[in-house]
């Protein structure tokens, strides 16, 4: 961080990011307190409720709950829940949801129904939004930047605390202590990744179609980038596929010139990623690998790496690549022709 | 069926299909008997285990188990289970899997581990295959055609019987009685769909990319066609997306000329499909809808329609379209350059 004042990241205000990061770290205390309350009340099982980007963000919570705990957890899509319901969802279930805007239509409708049935909903959103008004308990992000790395730390502070209180994740305090400077590391990681982001965007942003592959804790971030950034904000065609499923169909598309970006993680699924890497290196010359293991988090125990890898993917694959795709395509990330522009 | 002898379906032997269909209906008794045995032993929860096409086929079992029952059910990918494990998977869990070849590497490895731990595995496969040798109980398909409509009826005979024995699906006998001639209906449906199949394939098979949308009970069949047929067997780029998620990213890609195929089902998610249909009719001229509701099953109660809609999608979207894509592209459906051709 010595060179901070001389380093520039395109379309990124380092000072503002670090202030927001400090505020996010401070807000973790509230997330922990809400987890303590919910645990004291007890719960039978957990429903993670999202749609689009929030569904993708919650996927890493599903990942680590299944990793550490026997707790029964379901990740459900809000629009589907609204029509299908779910018979495992009971009075004593705990529903966890999120919305930066606080007015995502499908989520607001779902939470309205849930609360009317007396089912608890913990929402990561601002209190004054429609979702904030409906939810049983609100965990407020201090800044509504839509940055996934901030969101993930708040999710961790809440959901890992739930596991801690069940006896499934003993080192909660260590994890929170070791990540209190993580946003400084994530600035360094952005700086380290910058030239690669530029290079990858230059090579891939003009392609009519790209295959995006990931697995385990990084799957959600992979879908988020390919769907919510490239499809929605750049109108670029993508195919997101897990490292496991890649070998049961999508592999046949690969040949020289076919663009593939693999984001390698650090959890149990890494061996599936390695298999994809080996295959793609052999059969396409248009291949990039973003490996979260290449980026250090100062003072972090190795056992916590799978938990922070989604934040690293959010900083690299997602945030930095977005900006450089935008520079290459000259297609403004903020522009939508349909989404939330009118009723459909 | 009066005109049967004069009608031709391209690359489809009606007589052979009906014989295989009769054999499949007869084999349902074995599926039911295995369900009776498993139920008598008891089980704590259910894991549906697949990869690629079998994962997609089992998705409709997950759908109707969640629809009718409180039973805890998880659909898991075999390659992921092999590296991640699953803490809800216990000694008294019931694992259900399938493999037409009986030698799918990831499934054989998973079942080997499961059986070694004393966990029961029911496999839909042939007894003499590696999977058949390992599994605790085998339900043999009388024909290994890889036809999903046959597979679905056997899955129904087994899994709906499990629900019936739990008290969650009272009309099991009615359902099985009303579907004993279903393969005759599915021939009629193929004949009725033939000119549309030809027309859709002619319009879409030469496109470099197509978006495939479905939801609910048809989601698995939609992925199966887009990934296991078009990607794997035709080397055509596709994007499969649920009707719910479509509105959170993919919609921004749609404009005149962008190819979209929606397969509409008959379950609770139909209203999500309707929303997609309305949107796509407005924003692209390259749009086809396959609606399972247009195809009659003689003597079937309306409440059973969502259960048979995957078979209708298998006959239309999948089987007939595959053949007509092949005719258009002149790319042999049986040819693979990588998949199962060598070790990777």
UniProtKB/TrEMBL annotation, chains A, B:
<feature type="domain" description="SIS">
    <location>
        <begin position="34"/>
        <end position="168"/>
    </location>
</feature>
<dbReference type="GO" id="GO:0097367">
    <property type="term" value="F:carbohydrate derivative binding"/>
</dbReference>
<dbReference type="GO" id="GO:0004360">
    <property type="term" value="F:glutamine-fructose-6-phosphate transaminase (isomerizing) activity"/>
</dbReference>
<dbReference type="InterPro" id="IPR024713">
    <property type="entry name" value="Fructosamine_deglycase_FrlB"/>
</dbReference>
<dbReference type="GO" id="GO:0006047">
    <property type="term" value="P:UDP-N-acetylglucosamine metabolic process"/>
</dbReference>
<dbReference type="InterPro" id="IPR001347">
    <property type="entry name" value="SIS_dom"/>
</dbReference>
<protein>
    <submittedName>
        <fullName>SIS domain protein</fullName>
    </submittedName>
</protein>
<dbReference type="InterPro" id="IPR046348">
    <property type="entry name" value="SIS_dom_sf"/>
</dbReference>
<dbReference type="GO" id="GO:0006487">
    <property type="term" value="P:protein N-linked glycosylation"/>
</dbReference>
<dbReference type="Pfam" id="PF01380">
    <property type="entry name" value="SIS"/>
</dbReference>
<dbReference type="GO" id="GO:0006002">
    <property type="term" value="P:fructose 6-phosphate metabolic process"/>
</dbReference>
């Amino acid at each position: 961080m010595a060179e901070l004042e001389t380093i520039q990241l395109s379309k990124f205000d380092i000072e503002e990011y670090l202030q927001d990061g400090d505020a996010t770290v401070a807000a973790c205390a509230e997330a922990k307190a809400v987890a303590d309350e919910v645990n004291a009340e007890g719960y039978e099982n957990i429903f993670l409720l999202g749609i689009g980007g929030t569904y993708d963000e919650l996927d890493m919570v599903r990942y680590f709950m299944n990793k550490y705990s026997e707790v029964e957890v379901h990740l459900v899509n809000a629009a589907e829940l609204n029509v299908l319901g779910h018979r495992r969802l009971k009075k004593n279930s705990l529903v966890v949801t999120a919305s930066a805007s606080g007015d995502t239509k499908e989520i607001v409708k779902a939470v309205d129904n849930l609360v009317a049935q007396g089912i608890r909903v913990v929402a990561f959103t601002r209190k004054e939004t429609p979702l904030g008004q409906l939810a049983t308990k609100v965990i407020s992000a201090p800044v509504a930047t839509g940055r996934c790395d901030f969101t993930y730390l708040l999710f961790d502070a809440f959901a890992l605390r739930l596991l801690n209180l069940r006896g499934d994740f003993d080192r909660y305090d260590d994890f929170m202590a070791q990540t209190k400077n993580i946003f400084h590391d994530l600035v360094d990681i952005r700086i380290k990744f910058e030239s690669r982001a530029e290079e990858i965007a230059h090579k891939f942003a003009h392609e009519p179609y790209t295959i995006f592959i990931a697995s385990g804790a990084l799957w959600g971030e992979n879908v988020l980038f390919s769907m919510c950034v490239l499809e929605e904000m750049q109108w670029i065609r993508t195919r997101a596929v897990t490292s496991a499923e890649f070998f049961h169909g999508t592999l046949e598309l690969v040949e020289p010139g076919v663009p593939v970006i693999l984001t390698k993680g650090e959890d149990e699924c890494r061996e599936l990623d390695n298999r994809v890497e080996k295959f793609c290196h052999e059969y396409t010359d248009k291949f990039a690998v973003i490996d979260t293991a290449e980026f250090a988090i100062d003072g972090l125990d190795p056992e916590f790496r799978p938990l922070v890898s989604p934040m690293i993917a959010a900083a690299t694959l997602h945030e930095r690549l977005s900006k450089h795709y935008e520079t290459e395509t000259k297609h403004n990330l903020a522009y939508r022709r349909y989404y939330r522009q009118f009723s459909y």
